[in-house]
């Protein structure tokens, strides 16, 4: 069976507390924007609609910085459960408001080297393969960004805890087309991660 996606939306998962960092990573600055504004702009540049941003911890403070009219912001009141609750919140909102959408790309806000070429590559890989999912591959693992056909929505809605969709992708690996995203391995969890990112960026200039 070939899985076809006619309209693909985007869900940005940005509800975490950034406990290890000690401040909201969504608001860290890089390349002239906050992490979250940068990924939201990248999502909008991909020409996919709708773009839904899921906030949770520090939602009001973070929401004030998102001055992008074309995105839909939703709050996950269960954000403390972990990433799965944000997936459910974003997907529920998307299917309620935009029932015609038959695919989603899931993004996180702490991959500073994400760009719309990576998102486009996921869409093209899924289209060419006909498989129900496409996922970025880095460090020998599958992860975000990842694309899912609507046939997987119910399984995404059944996720729980803080594992997100990674375990699901690994479990269904034969149904997932992989897209190499070497810089996807760079994510920011600690102050040291952030300082390393800034220093490397300066060294590259």
Overview of the structural elements:
This protein is an alpha/beta fold and 205 residues long. It has a single domain, classed as Spore Coat Polysaccharide Biosynthesis Protein SpsA, Chain A, CATH 3.90.550. It has 7 helices and 9 strands, in the order βββαβαβαβαββααβα. The strands form 2 sheets. It has a 7-stranded mixed β-sheet, sandwiched between helices. Strands 2-3 form a two-stranded antiparallel ribbon. α2 (59-63) links the parallel β4 and β5. The N and C termini lie far apart (48 Å). The relative contact order is 0.19. The mean pLDDT is 92.
Topology:
Layout: E1 8-14, E2 29-30, E3 33-34, H1 35-45, E4 51-55, H2 59-63, E5 71-75, H3 83-97, E6 103-108, H4 116-129, E7 133-138, E8 141-149, H5 153-157, H6 166-171, E9 176-180, H7 191-204
Parallel strand pairs: 1-4, 1-6, 4-5, 7-9
Antiparallel strand pairs: 2-3, 6-8, 7-8
Can you identify the CATH class? Alpha Beta
Helix-residue proportion: 25-40%
**What name does the CATH topology carry?**
Spore Coat Polysaccharide Biosynthesis Protein SpsA, Chain A
Largest sheet: 7 strands, mixed
| Count of structural domains | 1
Count of helical regions: 7
Rounded to the nearest angstrom, the distance between the terminal CA atoms is: 48 Å
Q: How many β-strand stretches?
A: 9
CATH architecture assignment = Alpha-Beta Complex
Radius of gyration: 16 Å
The H-level CATH homologous superfamily, spelled out, is: Spore Coat Polysaccharide Biosynthesis Protein SpsA, Chain A
Q: Quick check: average pLDDT?
A: 92
């Amino acid at each position: 069976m070939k899985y076809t996606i006619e309209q693909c939306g985007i869900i940005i998962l940005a509800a975490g507390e950034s406990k290890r960092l000690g401040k909201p990573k969504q608001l860290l600055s890089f390349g002239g924007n906050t992490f979250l504004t940068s990924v939201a702009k990248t999502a909008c540049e991909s020409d996919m609609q709708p773009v839904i941003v899921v906030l949770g911890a520090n939602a009001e403070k973070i929401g004030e910085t998102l001055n992008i009219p074309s995105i839909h912001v939703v709050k996950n009141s269960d954000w403390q459960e972990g990433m799965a609750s944000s997936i459910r919140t974003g997907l529920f909102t998307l299917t309620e408001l935009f029932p015609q959408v038959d695919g989603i790309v899931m993004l996180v806000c702490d991959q500073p080297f994400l760009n719309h070429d990576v998102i486009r590559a996921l869409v093209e890989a899924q289209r060419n393969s006909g498989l129900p999912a496409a996922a970025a591959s880095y460090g020998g693992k599958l992860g975000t960004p990842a694309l899912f056909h609507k046939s997987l929505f119910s399984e995404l809605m059944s996720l729980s805890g803080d594992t997100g969709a990674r375990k699901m992708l690994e479990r269904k690996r034969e149904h997932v087309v992989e897209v190499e995203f070497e810089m996807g391995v760079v994510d920011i969890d600690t102050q040291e991660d952030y300082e390393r990112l800034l220093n490397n960026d300066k060294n590259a200039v």
